[in-house]
Amino acid sequence: MDAENTNNMKKSERRIFRYTLADAWGDTISQVEVLEGIEDKNVRCLYFDRRTGNTNVDFFCTTISQEDIEIIKQAMQSHIDIFQYKEIELPVVLDGVINTFEFTLDENFTNTITAYNIGAFRKDANIGILGTHPYKGSTVLQLFDQIAKLLLEHGVDPKYVQIS
User: Fold this and answer.
1) 61-88 b/e with 16+ CB inside 10 Å = b?
2) Percentages of the chain per state (helix, strand, coil), in multiples of 5
């Protein structure tokens, strides 16, 4: 295959979504990403188990259809405001986790959002939040929940899409 064809293949494969959960020190716990432009194994997951003296890494791939990719993109379009968020509100928690979300519709609509303890935006959480309602963090969490639900329906283990 010549260089031009290789470059065209690379351009067509792109990540539209990635979620990473890290501990308070920034060490990755889990990650899931969704790629478009490839037919097979377009969902890739990682999980790092550090409970023992050695880190065990669990890797899982699965395939979702182009229709499912379009559902994810439609969910992003229905929450288009997230592409303007530079930061979100802060929950009042002394320790916890770092949640990083990457959303991409195209080169004009892409955003990486880093949140701290985003689970505090759940309705049943009893944690104070610095900021004003309606919270941007709630919108990010709603979009994430839509994407995570679809991934879970396609066999992704909940450990890859955990919030805290």
Assistant:
1) eeebeeebbeebbebbeeeeebbebeeb
2) 35, 35, 35
Q: What is the CA radius of gyration of the chain?
A: 17
Which region holds residue 26: left if phi is over 0, alpha if psi is between -120 and 50, else beta? left
Model pTM score:
0.89
What tokens does 12 get? 């067509």
Sign of CA dihedral 163, 32, 77, 87: positive
Closest by CA position to 109, among listed 17, 32, 8: 17
Q: What does the alpha-carbon distance between residue 96 and residue 112 come to, in Å, rounded to a whole number?
A: 20
pLDDT per position as a tens digit, 70-106: 999 999 999 999 999 999 999 887 679 999 999 999 9
